[in-house]
Amino acid sequence: MSDKSLFYRGFEGNTEIEDFFERFQEYAEANETGNSVYILKRPLGDKKYTYDYDKAVVILVPKHKMLFLDYGGNEEAFEEYVDDFVDDVGHISDKYDYMQVLGRTSKWRKDFIETRTYSEIKDLSVEDLLRSIRIVSNEMSRKGEFIISLLTGSINDIEKTGIAYPETILEKIKRKIVLFDGEQTRFIYDEPHEKRITIQGLAGTGKTELLLHKIKEIYTHNDEVKIAFTCHNKILADNVRTRIPEFFNFMKVQEQIKWEEKLWVMSSWGSKADRNSGVYSYICDFYGIPFERFTYSTTFEGVCKRAIANLREQGSVEPCFDYILIDESQDFAESFFKLCEMVTRKCVYVAGDIFQNVFDYEDVSRVEPQFLLNKCYRTDPKTLMCAHAIGMGLFKPDIPLRWLSDSGWSDCGYDIKKNDGYYDLYRKPLRRFEDLGDVKLSTLEVMPTKRERYFEKIIEIIAKIQKENETVEPEDIGIMFLENNNTNYELAKRLQIEIKKEFGWNVNIGYETKEKIKDTLFVSNKNNVKGLEFPFVICFMQGCLTDNLQTRNSIYMMLTRSFITSYFILPDEGIKNIEHIMQGVDQVNKNGYLHVKEPTDDQKKTLYNAIIQHTSIHQSQREIVEDVLDELRIPKNEREKFHKLIETLYKDEFDKDRVYEIVQTNYNMMNSK
């Protein structure tokens, strides 16, 4: 199956050598190396770099020299094109502090540049051509990837990636040079041809980071523009508003940000008192339509439908934004997207997870996004496979908890081989993990343990990680627990004290600080780990593993926070329910793919009918709180006081995770009296 994420062409229109470009595209989409191929006429990321000669391109492939190709036959113009292009690379290198790695262009030009005419290579196969320009040295190959990152706008932090070639497994993965793949590059740089552009991806594919790059592209290349970024979660919106100035500074954007004039970052609803607090509140104020206040029984879906009706009564409306970018789109109903389209001049970008919850009823293949990101660059493919299998119950000896259609498996990044009633599910290798050679990493370890020994087991794991990775730092390890109960909170506090004594490391209690802190080991509940990543994570749960869907999904989310190894501690008293998981994980670690039995057609129907739907913003606040009370098994006769508490605390939008913590904390306090 072809992989469109492995090829990018940075220009449109027919050329005299279209067949040659098509051959390169076919090679890229069929190859198994995980390397992308980029064909450019100019550096991406800054439109000031233009050239007079239009019959030349540069072909970029990791581990290979830059290939400048002349297909116009004008030797003098081609030489000038190459000289100007290389000079511009030098300027970009200086701009982003890459000079300390690459040095001046005169130092690296002869080592990284190859020039050819089309007549010289037209009869060569792509494989033979690439073989002739391959870079053998690891250190030289690393420098070549730095150059590619400059030309594609995938700028790396030199302080984090380091200058020297990393030697240990931990350093190789931590300091891997990030390069946008073809699909990511298209999203950032290609002009939209539709009013709505949908981008979907697995968690960990970097959607929010891509949205930041898209904001930067639009902002810096348009003098008169109005851009809005929005999401349902108010905390995420505040986080993005903080990140944008940091991101702009890192990307060397010279223009000062014009907040609420050129760029808005706000939640979806907002309040009537502040039009800039939400997209909906801004729309109501701008067009003079009624604003509906947040109430305990109101759904945002209904609010948006009524806003659309009010705007239609006005007839043709002048757009109030040029672009709107929506993150976490799975939290919204279609009415919000339509409302945004009505008030946007150029494009609405809609970004969300393929499935935010591994138990969502919706078949992931039903939505056809223009950009599909199914490569999770945060997590090793084997870890992701195991986490999917545990979350979806694929290792169960009888019927699983969840099953996808063939197109659904494909959309989630799996290649399928069917054999006598079984599915073998493969994931392609990723650049982040490809240079580890023959090292066989155990990416997930399932550890049945007596509850009273959890503390000792966690300390043992930390000591093991430290022994096997000499350069490990406190911030490389994340510890996270499933249940919000006193036992786990007490264990977290004990770990904070004892880890300091045993290892000399400070511990960051994430459910208190709400952030990841440098030079500290991270400990938190499941509610405060979304979006975080660590080389190593240690996850534990107090209850025995059951088929509870919310529990399974939370386990999946925690296990995929690692990019080297996840350790999963759970009670040994339920060993009969764990053995099949341990066998399945061992098989994935050994063979590199999932081997699972396909359910019968009748079983698939049963599964689809049993799936619960998490509708988030489609529900009223009362319905969402009731979901939380169900999940925490709060007795029916005690629920009304929690509804009154939440209604009193929240007069505006709210965050479900925060509600979960409030209910859990107050319930524990009441039971401890």
UniProtKB/TrEMBL annotation:
A molecular-function term among this protein's GO annotations: hydrolase activity
BP terms from Gene Ontology: recombinational repair
UniProt keyword annotations, A-Z: ATP-binding, Helicase, Hydrolase, Nucleotide-binding
SUPFAM superfamilies: P-loop containing nucleoside triphosphate hydrolases
Residues annotated as domain UvrD-like helicase C-terminal: 522-567
UniProt cross-references to InterPro entries, sorted A to Z: DNA_helicase_UvrD/REP (IPR000212), Helicase/UvrB_N (IPR006935), P-loop_NTPase (IPR027417), UvrD-like_helicase_C (IPR027785)
Domain Helicase/UvrB N-terminal: 170-261
A Pfam match: ResIII
Database matches in PANTHER family: ATP-DEPENDENT DNA HELICASE SRS2 (PTHR11070:SF2), UVRD / RECB / PCRA DNA HELICASE FAMILY MEMBER (PTHR11070)
Protein name: Superfamily I DNA and RNA helicases
Species of provenance: Roseburia inulinivorans
